[in-house]
Amino acid sequence: MFLQGIFPPITTPFYPDGNVYFKKLESNVERYSRTPVAGIVVLGSTGEAVMLSDQERRDVLKTAREATAPNKVLIAGTGLESAVETLRLTEYAAELGYDVAMVRTPHYYKRQMQPANMLAFYRTVADRSPLPVIIYNFPQATGFDIPAELVIELADHPNLIGIKESSGDVEKIRNMVEGTRHVKRSATVTETFDAVTPRAITAASSSANGDRATLVPIAVLAGAGSETDPAFARDAKTGRAESPEASLSAAKPSSASVNVVGNLRTRQKEVGFQVLVGAANKLHPSLDAGAVGAILAFACLSPTACYEIYAAWKEGDTDLAKLKQERIAAAAQRIVGDLGIPGLKYGMDFNGYFGGQARLPLLPLTGEVKGEVERLLADIRN
What we know:
The protein is an alpha/beta fold.
């Protein structure tokens, strides 16, 4: 799965009595689906996953899945302390149609979390997971920081496709990128190099009213052939022109072919081990260090502001990327880094999303701190 871009790790809304507010969850997800984010992460740290019951986790996954646009990559936070429970939740996410499992480092028995333990845990999960897996490292919360050397060793597993690195250590990101350059894989993308999900293919197939997909040589799409070319024949079912080369490509797909489903055209792109970062205040330097995207709590309250940094960097406009980074740096550090989920949720309320209260023992902000958040976000409205 292609993971480049910005992903908000969505929050879980609650009623005042503490029950999950599923209608507000739907509303937030539908709104994120209309922004330029690449996808959505459900049950991350900002989703208060550790505060939810097993059934609530499943219900949140289901609700978010149903509300997400089919072209957005869906990442499920399925990491629990044991490999067995992690796999159970991962299997459920796969049944719902999620694209990737994000598995945080187990950490409760810290003294036993040695390299051999981590290798065994992640390899077991990756071996049996029906979804591709990304490692989730968040030492500020877990108290455990997985070493870059261990990540590099794990990167060779074919079902471990990346990491969310939330330590904020740019040098570590650079080391992981350099150490995994030998990893070469393939991901399905659109012609404009956006990720393609199975849900998007299903939607495109349905919109085509049953038309069967074909693989068309790029030369044809570029105009090298036409319906008047004697090499073309017409599909008896659709009436569309189809060449023998297209049929051959369908039998033997290659990087030189485009798969056409309805109005969706896809191709294969080579990708490596994909490093995503979790610190919005260091997004631009992390991208310069080799990260391909980010899963940012700050994107929950202002996805477009985060995307603008990524877009400017992608286009090679370093000055604009730096300017956009400076614009959010102080707010991201204070609201997310210092105030945590209560600050993030109030920022969402201020910017038009539904944040609401966090679950105890997290407490709501005081009036004074709310005023500070409002001042920090005064020119970062979404």
